[in-house]
Amino acid sequence: MAAERCLELVRELHRAAGGHLPPFRTDEMRQALEEMRALYERNQADVSEAKSGRTDLIFLIRFRHCCLLRNQRCLLAYLYDRLLRIRALRWEYGSVLPNTIQFHMSSEEVEWFNQYKKSLATYMRSVGGEEGLDLTQDIKPPKSLYIEVRCLRDHGEFEIDDGTTILLKKNSQHFLPRWKCEQLIRQGVLEHVLS
Asked: How much helix, strand and coil, in percent to the nearest 5, is found in the chain?
C-alpha cells in the first residue's frame, strides 16, 4: 500500500519510549525511496500522456503526487526525530556515546554527532573566558555543592580542583564536588548515593 513503509518508520520511533534510539532502518529507507522513485516515474509517464489529451489520468497523477508528499514528510519526520534524539544523547552521555547506542546509528548519523559535538565544544570554549564554560554541567539545578557518590567500576585516579587526587575503585564511596563528578555519573562510572 502507498506510503506504508514510511509510516511504519515513524510509528517505530513513536513506540520507542523515553528518547530511546532504535536501530536505523537502512533497508526500509531504501525501499521507501525506491517506492517514491517508482511513483515519480509513473507520474512522469502519465503526465506526458495527460498533456496529449488523456484527462482521465489527472486524478491518478494527483493521488500519486500526494503519496510522494506523504512519503517525503514521513521520511523527513523520521530523520529529524532521530537527529533530535541523537542531540539529546550528547547532553545526556557527553562527547563519547556508549557502543550500544552507536551501533544503532547510521554512519551519517555518527558523522552528524561528531560535527555537533565539535560545534558545541567550540562554542563552550568561546564562552566564559580562558577556560570556557561547560554547558553540560548542572543540567538540573543542584541542591548542594557536594554529593556522596559510589564508584561502580574501577576508574583510576581522579583529581579535583584543590589538587587532591582520589583513587576511584569499585564500591568505594567519596564526598565530591557535584560539578566534578556529574559527567562520570552520566557515563556510569559513579552513582549518586541518596541518604
From this structure: 60, 10, 30
